[in-house]
Amino acid sequence: MKNIITIGLLFSIAIVLLVTACSGSSDDKKQVAGKEENKTIDPMQDKGIGPVESISLPGLIDQTMAVLGDTLFINKCTACHKIYKRKIGPPLVGVTKRRAPEWIMNMILNPDEMVMKNDAARKLLMEYIAPMANQSLEEHEARALLEYFRSIDADQTSLKEE
Asked: What is the pTM of this model?
């Protein structure tokens, strides 16, 4: 009889522990909800993680800056990127239409932290497998690359309008 009571008591304790362990806390549920919210963020509102928190872009392309960006692109980026085709990394045509300017600059300046903490950067890493190399560029160089990408995307827009 004692064995039956002991087994019943142990079984009851095991059930309580199992239910408690599987239920999760409300903090866990909040974290899951927060992660789901992050996944639905508008890519043009996602500024990424890095030194660039806000940037105001002029309406017109700064051609001098775009030429510097073109040179930087050739010297620093073409090992992994092409403008119109996939290489090791994604094609960059249209990037200024898909991503916020801050995100683009932060990805250039801070790729290691971006792939660790930014959902969009992590998705790119999963798709392209290879992480983006940190080229140790200065902020003004990342800005020049952004202007180069803007010039390419402006050309694409004008081609569509013709």
From this structure: 0.73
